[in-house]
Amino acid sequence: DRVFKIVLAGDAAVGKSSFIMRLCKNKFVTNLNSTVGVDFQTKTLKVDGKIIALQLWDTAGQERFRSIAKSYFRRADGVLLLYDVTYEKSFLNVRDWIEIIKDGTQKYIPVMIVGNKCDLREDRRIKDVCLKYEDGHNLASNVDCLFVETSAKSGSNINEAIIELTRFAHHML
Ligand code: GDP
């Protein structure tokens, strides 16, 4: 009987829409192109025997507009902060995102940092330039966030990420 609002944050093209698509529709589409008009998707989950209704808010297009992004975080029960493991810039921007998330509100918001596109490590040509699991894990422990690596493409860890964040946020209430 409780609705959890989860907001997805992170640079453009890290896979926020794909993450939501995988979670809610169990699909991966290469050319998602802004699904205009939809603010959020819903998903119900069973966590520790309780049914939890999730609202997943995408900040698509708001990456450059901090003031709009902030208003999303203000009403969030939890944030999934994505970066792309093949794109260092998106990883370096994680700290900025955390500032923006904290800036919008006085209340504590659980944040899970998510290294997405980890399926691309399977590609030998890319493997060496990819961020390592430890990179993300170390950053997350420095900034006191949860951490997971996912692939919206393969579906790896997508459900697990949401369950862990929801469980954590639930205990924070
Ligand atoms: P957003 O701008 O953060 O919402 O990112 P999108 O969901 O639109 O994804 C950007 C691009 O990355 C698209 O071409 C996706 O198909 C691709 N992408 C997203 N997630 C993954 C993933 O887990 N693995 C791979 N290989 N590609 C992904």
Question: How is this fold's topology laid out?
Answer:
Blueprint: E1 3-9, H1 16-25, E2 40-47, E3 50-58, H2 66-74, E4 78-84, H3 88-92, H4 94-103, E5 111-116, H5 124-127, H6 133-142, E6 146-149, H7 158-172
Parallel strand pairs: 1-3, 1-4, 4-5, 5-6
Antiparallel strand pairs: 2-3
Bound molecules: guanosine-5'-diphosphate (GDP).
Kindly describe this structure.
It is found in: Cytoplasm. This is SOCS box domain-containing protein. Its main location: cytoplasm. The protein is of the alpha/beta class and 173 residues long. The chain has one domain (4-172): 3-Layer(aba) Sandwich (Rossmann fold). It is 36% helix and 24% strand. The chain has helices at residues 16-25, 66-74, 88-92, 94-103, 124-127, 133-142, 158-172; strands at residues 3-9, 40-47, 50-58, 78-84, 111-116, 146-149. Helix 2 crosses helix 4 (94-103). The longest helix has 15 residues, at 158-172. The two termini are 14 Å apart. The relative contact order is 0.20. Residues 12-18, 30, 32, 60, 116-117, 119-120, 151-153 line the site of guanosine-5'-diphosphate.
Features:
173 residues; alpha/beta; Rossmann fold; six-stranded mixed beta sheet; globular; binds guanosine-5'-diphosphate
Short description:
The protein has helices spanning 16-25, 66-74, 88-92, 94-103, 124-127, 133-142, 158-172, and strands spanning 3-9, 40-47, 50-58, 78-84, 111-116, 146-149. With 173 residues, the chain is of the alpha/beta class. The protein has one domain (4-172): 3-Layer(aba) Sandwich (Rossmann fold), CATH 3.40.50.
